[in-house]
From TrEMBL:
Protein name: GSCFA family protein
SUPFAM superfamilies associated with the record: TPR-like
Pfam annotation, one family: GSCFA
InterPro entries: GSCFA (IPR014982), TPR-like_helical_dom_sf (IPR011990), TPR_rpt (IPR019734)
Organism this protein belongs to: Pseudovibrio axinellae
Length: 562
């Protein structure tokens, strides 16, 4: 069954209205480089200081630390203050798999299915036991201590009933199954446990459908037991598999693991009104690797974790005092503020704009829009050179008619291998603005040979540039665009409008060609009027008769044309 069904009209309408429907290239405001910032669909708001229940992988632990700093209450953090957790780290609470997350909620919320210590707790040495469902970093301890920790963990998960927000971060789909207990573990059992019962455990690679089943049961449990009406935020941990037990490259195994989790999460969001997806996985994995990952290439850098939490808090919470976060500021700039509003924003958030390349690019774009070209160049000069800044520099220089400088930038940054579509467009516009039409056509040809799949689009953009200079050339280029896409309604409408303009121009030309005929009628007046015989009665009568005959002859055909 399809995840979603849209009529062709609705699908096209959504695509046109969605500002984020196209993958950005390097010539536009680039929301994926160097740090990716996918659009956040915030379907609810988190009240300041409210309780947030968090569960998931090590990435969830990093998120928790930042949420505490933002002033939220997190029960999982309070658990570690209990005496039985004195020598236990936060990592011991990591939970990686959808089945093991379901287990914890089931044991806490379903009285008919409590935790079974006979199968869930194993003896590994004399008077030393382990809980098979916590991380192996927790050292074996006396049975009483292990049992006490288990009771505290179950109590923690039971507190989800009073949490208005639940954040679940999914880690992997490569999980271990306990054939004796009939459930999944959180991590691989300790070597000592496996030696005791080598046939007890199996590795299972779950499908997206199986993962969805466990997630659905988890959401149902939370919804049935919540006393405050919880909103559930699902995310996929960007942290990859550190190792795989499959006969695959770990990168291939990790791609399947994350893909199956992502597919299950998407279905879950469509199935429940109170489940939402947060794109932390996309944000981290699409970012520059040197910025996103620590040296182990497994764990996310503190800066990127802070960035994600800041975006989450900015999108899902009510900021006090009307202050802009980084993300709400960029949305304000993209929303097209008035020139007065732009000046206020640039003054109020000067440091934030200056320190952020994406904000600076948006600011420079708006300065160009308001014809403040010199100011835009000053902003761009202070930025690192990238594909976006080059395009804006060329545009500003062109509009200032500093053509030589603009051409120098084009020559330096545009060659026959460049795929910066926006820079190609600016280069063509630069040629046309200087009246170098042959050069403009040459650039169009070079561009379309470089990107043949975009030929129709290239002809259309070239036509748009030429439209203000030569409507016949523009019509020809739009017609060539239609050869590649006969259903291009934009090109069809543009051709119709340009032909109407051509008709008006032709009418004006006809009018101009008829002016000499009018001169023939009236031109003799001045010559005859200067005749020495001007004062004679005969001359006046002759002049009037000739003038009348010529006016009559001129008027007849004009009158017939209406």
């Amino acid at each position: 069954m399809p995840l979603q069904v849209l009529s062709s009209q609705d699908a096209i309408k959504i695509r046109k209205q969605n500002l984020y429907s196209n993958w950005p290239n390097r010539g536009k405001t680039n929301r994926f480089e160097p740090v990716a910032r996918p659009k956040i669909e915030a379907g609810f708001k988190i009240e300041p200081g409210s309780t947030i229940f968090t569960v998931g992988s090590c990435f969830a632990r990093n998120v928790e630390a930042n949420l505490v700093a933002e002033g939220f209450r997190l029960p999982v953090r309070e658990l570690l203050r209990r005496p039985e957790f004195d020598n236990v780290t936060m990592a011991s609470l990591n939970n990686y798999g959808a089945p093991s997350i379901f287990n914890e909620f089931c044991w806490a919320l379903d009285s008919d299915k409590p935790f079974d210590p006979d199968t869930g707790i194993c003896q590994v040495k004399d008077d030393r036991y382990v809980d098979l469902h916590v991380m192996n970093e927790v050292r074996p301890a006396a049975l009483e201590e292990v049992t006490s920790r288990r009771e505290a963990i179950t109590e923690l998960y039971r507190s989800v009933r009073e949490s208005r927000t639940v954040i679940i971060t999914l880690g992997l789909s490569e999980v271990w199954f306990d054939q004796v207990a009939g459930n999944y573990l959180n991590v691989i059992p300790l070597p000592g446990v496996m030696r005791q019962a080598p046939d007890r455990f199996e590795l299972h690679i779950l499908t997206a459908g199986e993962l969805l089943g466990y997630l659905t049961r988890t959401v149902d449990l939370i919804n049935q037991n919540s006393v405050v009406g919880a909103n559930i935020l699902i995310s996929i941990s960007p942290v990859p598999l550190n190792q795989t037990f499959r006969d695959l490259d770990v990168s291939v195994a990790n791609t399947y693991s994350k893909s199956s989790l992502r597919a299950a999460a998407e279905e879950l969001v469509y199935a429940y009104d109170n489940v939402f997806y947060y794109p932390s996985y996309e944000a981290i994995t699409l970012s520059d690797r040197k910025l996103a990952w620590q040296d182990d290439q497994v764990h996310v850098t503190d800066a990127l974790v802070s960035e994600q939490v800041s975006r989450m808090v900015g999108a899902y919470t009510y900021r006090s005092g009307g202050e802009h976060s980084r993300d709400t500021l960029i949305e304000s700039l993209r929303g097209g503020p008035s020139e007065q509003e732009l000046d206020w924003l640039s003054l109020r958030y000067a440091d934030m704009i200056k320190a952020d390349s994406e904000l600076s690019t948006e600011y420079a774009h708006l300065l160009i829009k308001y014809k403040r070209f010199e100011e835009a160049l000053s902003v761009l000069e202070a930025m690192l050179v990238d594909a976006s800044t080059i395009v804006l520099k060329v545009r500003a220089l062109k509009l200032l008619e500093r053509f030589e400088e603009a051409e120098a930038l084009v020559a330096t940054n545009l060659d026959n291998r460049s795929r910066n579509h926006q820079l190609w467009e600016e280069a063509i516009s630069l040629s046309v603005d200087q009246g170098k039409f042959e050069e403009a056509h040459g650039r169009i040809d070079t561009w379309r040979h470089l990107a043949p799949s975009a030929t129709g689009l290239i002809f259309r953009r070239g036509a748009r540039i030429f439209a203000g200079y030569d409507t016949k050339v523009a019509i020809d280029l739009y017609a060539r665009a239609l050869e590649f896409d006969p259903d291009d309604k934009y090109a069809l409408v543009a051709i119709q409008k340009l032909k109407e303009i051509e008709k008006l121009k032709e009418a004006e030309r006809l009018k101009e060609t008829e002016k000499p005929k009018e001169d023939e009628v009236f031109g003799t007046l001045e010559r005859e009027a200067s005749s020495p015989e001007l004062n004679s009665k005969a001359h006046s009568q002759k002049l009037g008769s000739v003038l009348f005959d010529r006016m009559k002859a001129w008027w007849a055909p004009h009158h017939e044309r209406g």
